[in-house]
Amino acid sequence: MSLxxxxxxxxxxxxxxxxxxxxxxxxxxxxxxxxxxSMISLAGIYAILGVxxxxxxxxxxxxxxxxxxxxxxxxxxxxxxxxxLERYGRAVxxxxxxxxxxxxxxxxxxxxxxxxxADYLAGLHSNSMAASFEVQPFxxxxxxxxxxxxxxxxxxxxxxxxxxxxxxxxxRRHDG
Amino acid sequence: xxxxxxxxxKRYWNEPEMGWYERSYFxxxxxxxxxxxxxxxxNMWKWMTGRKGALTAxxxxxxxxxxxAHNRGKHILTQRPDGxxxxxxxxxxxxxxxxxxxxxxxxxxxxxxxxxxxxSRFEIDYSRCVFCGLCVEACPEDAIRMVKETPDLPxxxxxxxxxxxxxxxxxxxxxxxxKPYPAAGAGRTxxxx
Amino acid sequence: MPGRQLIMSFPVTAxxxxxxxxxxxxxYQALEKALKTMQPAGIIKEITASGLQGxxxxxxxxxxxxxxIVYDDGQPHYLIANADEGEPGTFKDRWILENNPHVLLxxxxxxxxxxxxxxxxxxxxxxxxxxxxxxxxxxxxAYAAGYFGERILGTDFSCDIVVYRGAGAYVAGEASGLIASxxxxxxxxxxxxxxxxxxxxxxxxxxVNNVESLSNIAWIIAHGAAAYKEVGTPKSPGTRLFSVSGHxxxxxxxxVELGYPWMKFLDExxxxxxGGKPIKCVVPGGVSSKVLTGAExxxxxxxxxxxxxxxxxxxxxxxxxxxxGTCMVTLSQILMRFYHHESCGQCTPCRHGTGWLHRxxxxxxxxNGRPEDIERLYYIxxxxxxxxxxxxxxAAGYAMSGILDKFRDEFEYYIEHKRSRYDGNLECxxxx
Amino acid sequence: xxxxxxxxLVYIGYALAVLLTFGAILTWVERKQAAIMSDRIGANRAxxxxxxxxxxxxWLGLFHGMADGLKLLLKEDFKPVTYDKLGYALGPWLAFxxxxxxxxxxxxxxxxxxxxxxxxxxxxxxxRTYPMQIxxxxxxxxxxxxxxxxxxxxxMLAGWSSSNKFSMLGALRAGSQLISYELVMGLTVxxxxxxxxxxxxxxxxxxxxxxxxGFLPAWGIVYQPLAAILFLTAGIAENKRIPFDLPExxxxxxxxxxxxxxxxxxxxxxxxxxxxIAIIAALFTTLFLGGYNLPWLTDAGFVFPGGAxxxxxxGAVVAIQVVTFLAKVFLLCSFQILIRWTLPxxxxxxxxxxxxxxxxxxxxxxxxxxxxxxxxxx
Amino acid sequence: xxRTQLLLTLSITLFALGLIGVMVRRNALVMLMCMELxxxxxxxxxxxxxxxxxxxxxxxxxxxVFVVAAAEIAIAIPIVLLLSRQRHTLDVSAYSELxx
Amino acid sequence: xxxxxxxxxxxxxREDQTVLQVAxxxxxxxxxxxxxxxxxxxxxxxxxxxxxxxxGLDIACNMPVSAGMKVFTDSDDVKAHRKAILQFIxxxxxVDCGICDKAGECTLQDYHYAYNGEPSLSVDAKVRSxxxxxxxxRILLDNERCILCLRCTRFTxxxxxxxxxxxxxxxxxSNIRPVEDRPLGEDPYSDNIVDLCPVGALQxxxxxxxxxxxxxxxxxxVCPGCERGCTIQVWHRKPEWFVKSLxxxxxxxxxxxxxLENPAVNGPWICNKGRDLARIFxxxxxxxxxLKGRPVPVAEAIDAARRLIGAARxxxxxxxxxxxxxxxxxxxxxLGEVFVHAHVKTDWQPExxxxxxxxxxxxxxxxxxxxxxxxxFDMGEPNYHDGTDLVLVWGEGYDFSRIPPQxxxxxxxxxxxxxxxxxxxxxxxxxxxxxAGHYTNFQGVVSKFEPCFPKGEAVxxxxxxFKALEAPPRGHT
Lengths: 176, 193, 432, 378, 100, 477
Fold this sequence. Notes:
D: three-stranded antiparallel beta sheet, F: alpha+beta
């Protein structure tokens, strides 16, 4: 087994452990830490898969921005909240059942390997160019083929910013 | 809910109005850096050419020679002609001391009805003393004085920076209560014969 | 003799103090009269009517004092004759005790009868040896003659007497100090209230009277208050015994009818001043009274009101005559030494004030006086005055300030020149 | 052991040695420079005594750093009563590790040909050459920013888990300050990316070899002077040093987010601060000062514009490159210290206002101008 | 199990865990984070497919997901803040009745 | 109810009151040295001079009230005389406040600052006298400082009735002296005269030069010396004046003990035994729980005790009559069901030569809380029988040989004693100065005491201990 595969298993295990810990941990900060570790592990997996850009952006955006924001808010709302201690709601059994059904269904699909069929892949390959995950080709591809999507996301982001400000302002107005 | 006013920073009466020039910071910062950097380079040059580039003294190897004439840096206990401390352990100095550094243990001497109370221990914590001289002011017996000497202030152990009674009694000129305080500039305080 | 005589009305002989001679002079008839014909209330009324004043120094009306005693209040009363005569210059009671003790005893019996006293006391000064022996003998005689003891003269009246010798303290002459001493305690004067006539000896109503004042009672009862009123001046009836000492040719005890001119008394009765010198000053009634200069007494008569007007008092009748040429500074030093020594030490101002006065006087006499000392002496005298239990502190202050008022220049001279203007002379003969 | 792995190990060893040395030396430089700037003497007490003699090696107080390290190592590790021991323990590591890891992508020299350097090993290396960079990632610059993001979490976690209001305040400040300035940093760098057309740091450095207009070194600072200033400013802010030391402002917050830390845990914060000085300097050197490049230095030696050449062996070239890089980094470190002892602290609102109202618009303007220029020129 | 299958399984598991978390946990912030976990699972599957099929579209889609995640957080967190300011708790059961 | 006018203010007075009492009751302070509410009026200090309109100056302490009298306590004349009297006192009073233990709580100092504030006008030497006169082995007399207020002599005459003190000589050389055949040392109340003395003439040898009074503070407490339960003040060093270099034990030791006036129990007096509480409280303390003499942690010892209690079939308890009300209640509440046979043990027997009883304060039972203990538990020696398998001894003073040999012993004690090691379980207890509580005296009066010193780490409060002992031992649910 190569070093890469070993690392892959390690990161996969770490990501899984992080996900499980998120359910177990009581305090949101612990949950956040678990999520961060899970995300970094996933970034590691992406790096091993050769998708460096995604790996870096996973860390940059998720850890560096989203989770920092999250941690910031957890710190701000650091009230002794019963919700911190009360770990689970009432819907434990149904939710686990739903998740189990979902994962079994998807897992079955994966294990049968239908989606990985050669024809399917061939179909994919046919309309792809020489796919490279290097930064430069990726970026060129990204901006040339998917520029519309890119610009649309910026609209989404703008909308999000405006919405966030609106929400906050609305709260302020409500306050008085 | 209380009405929350928007935060308006308080303006001070002498707050300068900053133009864009100051507001952009960089030019002013550059000015500051030029000054400090200039000093740095000049001093660095002195250092590198083997001259001392600083005004500070290497204490305690170098001791300032120009202590003020009225500097009083060390406590002493005056003595009676027989060498015993003039102190009557009244604790006035300890009480007035703003740093609470003086601690006195009193003892009773039934054989000496003139001075029945004497200090069995008299200690000053030099690590906390502020040299204000209030103890000298407070003393009703002229038993504690401050002289021009400088004590060995630095030490490695705070516990050992207590000045003990025997050191305080090192002061040589034994004298009685009636003897006046040496006048300023009398020059008799340091190691008088 | 100046004026009428009430007490010293007989020639003193070797036996004139005996019961027999006293009886021969008509003694104990007043007692009989009182016991047999008068009611106690009547006696008190008589004494009040006579206007008799205390002879101890304060000149308080005796009748008023007696009236406080409730005759029938169910508790024992006590009568004490104060024979603790300690004032410098005063020795008049001694004359009575030595030469006419029975007049005291008779008067005390009358007073006891009037005040419902079963036990009376004579507190006699410890240093009085002869007076004590005479008095003790007189008491023996009186007991033997049935004047003391149970059922006196066949009446229901019973009375005992105790003669108590003091141990030598000036303050024991103060009534409450005397009582404390009599009780066996240190003779500390006591605060009033309660007054002694309410709570005195053994916490019972007690009347303390001077020997001389008591001695007048027999005469008053015998002759009536009206007769007594005729003697002396209207405001101070009766006579007073004066013990004259100092620079007079004939010192001694004289009985003087009040209202008698002073200079006449000194010049004629006392034989004039030694060496014919002018009078510098006179201490009229014991050293506790303020001195009067020779000029001041020129026109004065000997009566309480006259001396009060002159700012002094007849006091205890100890008249000290001081001739010109006497050093008043040294004199005051001696006086202050006396007060310092005799202060009982109970009250703060007197205890320290007398000592302070004495020390300052000592210092001045030793030539170490300071100009501010005079002010200091005034200060002490002022604050000694009226702030103590008994009058000793006041007396020291009176004496001091009295002398200072009149002879301040002498003190200033002494302080300035560190020596006396009169070379510290006290004896008149020496200087001239 | 493969030669690649061996070389990587050597690089890692070098990087660690340089970083830790910088961390230690900078503590001394900081003191000494501050002292010299303010007419003082500075560190001069700690000494090593040669055993069995009375010879004391003072060496201008160089051992103060060592004394500091020993003290921090040997001190008792006080732990506050906190409800999150895990976060408390994790904080310093999260703050320290990313900072050290950033050096992995920074090129500290040109291309190394070990075969040429050590002829005896030429066979083993088989003529392969290695860029002097631990991890030659094509997304190098992005990695730097990614790690920066993790470091923020470290500081915030440390402050929050200390159960101390001052620490908490420090952590909140650290969070907002770092995010704000990281944004500025990223935007300033975008101009350079536009010019160089890459985010691979080694490629960026290679772009900066040579000269422009014949006499100016083709460094980033020449193309992007405004971006350089903005980047350095934001970099110092990232480092949480004066004048941007709000998260740990002594006079307000004791020690800010690491108030409750003691012994080596605190030492890690301090060390990461000093290493970060070096990192910022290295990054600035790489991006704007041509990295290991010297003007006219090529792989074969100096080639001056006049045609004069100065031949140098491969070893000499590598050595000159490494030393050049270190010298640039050191000078920049010194410059940062100069700034630290020159400027007073910002006020909190000024700090954020400065980032959002001044630096950000400027950097956007810079980006737009650069973009237009690049578009026009290509 | 090859690499792709492994990663897909992992992605399904993470998604399921996130789902359970969202349904079970009562803390609003934790629920948000669980949503992030679900997104991560999805991203993982996208990247896996992209790598497996060597096409870029998956990776590009990931970027879009990043943006969506950032936007989601940007809006969700102010909402959570406002909610907690009103009810002084992060327990979602307290918000079951959404009255001002 | 005569109405008098104090400084123009009409106040109500009772007929039997003096002007001084009325003034003090109505918040008008009139200075005094010799007057004391529990002693007769001597009226010799002349400090309380007041001016009565129409009557001039007189002392307030001996001035009965009469309706309508107009008293001025602060007229210029009064002020001048007060000042003069302080001048007279300071004439011979030595200014040795520096070495006087009374300094800081000295009436003369206070009055001097309040009413005089000038140095002595005298330039002459002061009267010297005996500086240190041994009144007894407890009290030193400094005649120079004495202002002859006669409070001490009046105390020995009127309160303690020992008649041990009198005045010798007169004038300013008067001295307080003991009466030859009535030694003050045999007066068990003698130390009260030290408190009575308005200046520092009478000095307690225990406290002599021990500490300046302004370094001390008083914590109210109760004397455990006998069942009278006099309220006392325990004086100890203020935390801000803790010594750092000198003997640290000074910081946590009793400097002196003074009475805390309590009309219901002891008035303003306590006996000498109460002054010597340091002798009881500062014995060597037991500070380590032990199992058969083997030091163990607290939790382990408590656990062992719980196990013994849980296993006992016929337990007997000997309850301390030095326990506070709270502790006795706690024992009754938490352990009363287990220890059905709980008997009050007499911790402290009268010492040899100690006065057993008198009509002032001293009571024959030398334990503070027998009354409360008797209320809750049986008196008398417990009836051991063969089945007695556990004896809990609380407090000292019990002879262990009386305990049947087969019985296990739980011993709770505060002081080091040989028995501590013999007990199966030994638990150290806190003492009175380390805990708060109440004692009930023989009259049923409950008095409070407060803690003033910290207790040792392993030292337990009995109240909490009994609660802990009630719980089942660890490992047994």
